[in-house]
Amino acid sequence: MNIPPRHCAGPVRRREFLAAGALGLGGLTLPDLFRCREAAAAAGQSVDEETAVIFVWMPGGPPHMDMYDMKPNAPIDYRGAFHPIRTNVPGMDVCELMPRHAAIADKYSIIRSVAHQFADHGGGHKRLMTGRVPATPVDTVNDAPATGSIVAKCREGRDCGIPNYVSMNPGGRINDVFAQGAAYLGQSYMPFNVEGDPSQPSFSVPNIAPSEVVMGRIGDRMSLLKGLDRINREIDGHRMVESTDRFQDRAVGMLTSNRAKRAFDLSLESPLTRDRYGRHCWGQRALMARRLVEAGVSFVTLVMENPYQSGVEFLKQGVYNWDSHAVNCHIWDDLKVRLPIYDQAVTALIEDVHQRGLDKRTLILVTGEFGRTPRIENSIGTQTGVMHPGRDHWPQAMSFIMAGGGMRTGQIIGSTNSKGEHPADRPLTPNDLWATVYRHLGIDYTESFPDRRGRPMPILPSGEPISELLRA
Questions:
Q1: From residue 119, how far is each of 10, 231, 367, 371, 395 by CA, in Å?
Q2: Which residues are bridge partners to 363 per DSSP?
């Protein structure tokens, strides 16, 4: 007898949504995910499951004119304290505090012409993380799913023995703090959070290697499920539940697998590799991100927020994140500490991805929520009580870099005007960034998921892949 396939909620085109009616909003169990994957394969659907994204997030807003879009000929109250240096790509300059960037500029591209309209951290986070105009300009609780959650939903049927969406965050500052929420997709599509500093001997990842108690509970649960299955089989004359056993077995196998534990274990890396990234929270998170995509994780968010850890003494005139207002910090003193650590971690990640042959399938994106005001402000610092320079929020212009993904690199895309105030050519939005990411992952960003009211919401309401990055 033919058994009708069990329904599997997933992305649907608008016309399919109207035809099929509202889809369920609850998360699927792991056995259901395996069942969906098998059903999709039987239907001839496919997604390039080998592709992955490492998303380096710099909350607070990095200063574009002091990193990737320097203006040495601008007036003194715009151009900043540092000088640009040449890179190994003619015509591409970066800040003098990032010499490692200069040495590998052929392996990444700088995009200088992205802008949006949300100057608050909350609105900026949501605008960047979701590719949507947020319902409110403040707060960081998403009203639309973050990109990582969309990827987790689109690839929910994957079985690689490790969580498919991972976020490495500072302890206590996770998910909704950085607008990483899953919104109407539900809690099932939140990231697997890894908190703390992986450079420290005490660092550990909870819930990866099940304890004996947890294993005992798993055994008890499986016994209960088998008992229920026997009752169901007696009731169900068509024996429709027989196939449940193999899906349950696969789910338990994934939970108890050693693969995830090994992926998070930095002790398996050589001391030279760990030194190359830097024995610091940012560097070791970057190394862990590479290990995770190598193990099969589709989307890794790597938060680079506070450089004053892992033995780096906190500057009284420094600030924990990239929010370099004059009242928060002396921006030049803070960058003298921050940028060398950032420079080492990010370039080690890019080089390592290339050298390990991961550069075609792994896309690296490095950004914050906006840039900083081109014109320098001077105010009395809250911590120091003295006057020092800084820059305010500036969504009208920002810079970010992209590497890997089989893209064309070693180029500058777009530009800002002579004072770094707004795009001068090739204006782009955060949606163009994410359209590029979704294209790399093989996800059709015109498809839709239902919101809490059952309305079809396209993954991206607008945006196109950045054509200069794409190979024919």
A1: 34, 59, 15, 9, 6
A2: 53, 404
For residue 446, what are the CA distances in angstroms to 13, 381, 431?
Answer: 7, 47, 12
29 pLDDT band (50/70/90 cuts)?
very low
Domain at 90, CATH number: 3.40.720.10
Same domain? 247 vs 103 = no
Q: How many domains does the chain have?
A: 2
Supply the range of the domain harboring residue 321: 14-209+258-469
Beta carbons of 280 and 338 less than 8 angstroms apart: no
- SS3 string, 48-75, reads CCCCEEEEEECCCCCCHHHCCCCCCCCC
Q: How far is CA 166 from CA 15, 279, 442, 454, in A?
A: 33, 21, 19, 28
User: Which of 137-141, 385-389, 417-421 shows the lowest per-residue confidence on average (mean pLDDT)?
Assistant: 137-141
Q: Is 467 exposed, middle or buried (0-12, 13-18, 19+ CB in 10 A)?
A: exposed
d(CA 108, CA 139): 32
Q: Which two tokens stand for residue 406?
A: 């089989």
Residue 341 lies in a domain: yes
Q: What is the pLDDT of residues 251-277, one digit of tens each?
A: 454 445 688 889 999 999 999 999 999
State phi, psi for 299 to the nearest 5 degrees: -140, 120
- The span from the CA of 111 to the CA of 415, in Å, is 8
Q: What is the pTM of this model?
A: 0.83
Instruction: Report the pLDDT averaged over residues 384-390.
Output: 97
Alpha-carbon distance of 252 to 175, in angstroms, equals 26
- Classify strands 398-404 and 362-367 as parallel, antiparallel or unpaired: antiparallel
pLDDT band at 175 (very low <50, low <70, confident <90, very high): low
Residue 340 lies in a domain: yes
pLDDT tens digits along 350-363: 999 999 999 999 99
Q: Which of 257, 288, 323 is the last residue of a domain?
A: 257
- Residue 125's nearest CA partner among 304, 369, 300 is 369
Whole-angstrom Cα distance, residue 296 to residue 343?
26
Calpha distance 202→420 (Å, rounded): 44
Check: CB of residue 147 under 8 Å from CB of residue 156: no
The per-residue pLDDT for range 12-24, each reduced to its tens digit, is 443 333 333 333 3
Closest CA to 22 of 460, 447, 445, 449: 449
Q: From CA 194, how far away is CA 203, in angstroms rounded?
A: 10
Per-residue pLDDT at 184: 95
Can you give 223-244 as a three-state secondary structure string?
HHHHHHHHHHHHHCCCCCCCCH
